[in-house]
């Protein structure tokens, strides 16, 4: 196992956890550069997602930035659809193309919110209307297909809809990623495509556990909302563009 890859996973986990994400997209990109087997990539990325956002969910909840009712409302239909999306067969090239496009579009939405709109305030009327449950279900399906948790898609939509405060949205995304990553992993298990190598994945899991704990604490207790938004947009854009420019043949 490369010490450099472990360090990169640690850094990704720290930065993504600080924005309420698990980092699955960048884990996949890094493993692709290292030439890791495609199925091992997906299984390892989902496991890393789960261990990162489990700590994040705890810290966001403890800090009062995880409205449980809203989290359940958004996630209740997404988990079974994440399972279905993960169960569907997909070619490697299609997978990376779909992921790169989705992340880039999400980044552009975030940039629009950051640079073209001022004075962000959550809409107090957004108490968990049915439309966000439907949106969550669609994102769950997409996240199952792409092999990540889906928070990277959910965050800009919640921001555009002024669904909650930036830190609460980060907490909601952490919860969403956790349950959808579990759903996606179960989908892979159902079609018997989970590939786990303890020698390979063990050091990476340890790296993201440490990085994720540090990042979650920074977001929940230290980082200002604007910093959380900026980290979110930059990380999404970086992951999306990198995927599109490094599509496998």
From TrEMBL:
PANTHER family: MEMBRANE TRANSPORTER PROTEIN MJ0441-RELATED, MEMBRANE TRANSPORTER PROTEIN-RELATED. One of its GO terms (cellular component) is plasma membrane. Keywords: Cell membrane, Membrane, Transmembrane, Transmembrane helix. This is Probable membrane transporter protein. It is a multi-pass membrane protein. It comes from Chitinophaga tropicalis. Pfam families: TauE. Belongs to the 4-toluene sulfonate uptake permease (TSUP) (TC 2.A.102) family. InterPro entries: TM_pro_TauE-like, TSUP/Inactive_protease-like. The chain crosses the membrane at residues 43-61, 71-88, 94-112, 132-154, 169-187, 194-215, 227-245. It is found in: Cell membrane; Membrane. The keyword Cell membrane applies.
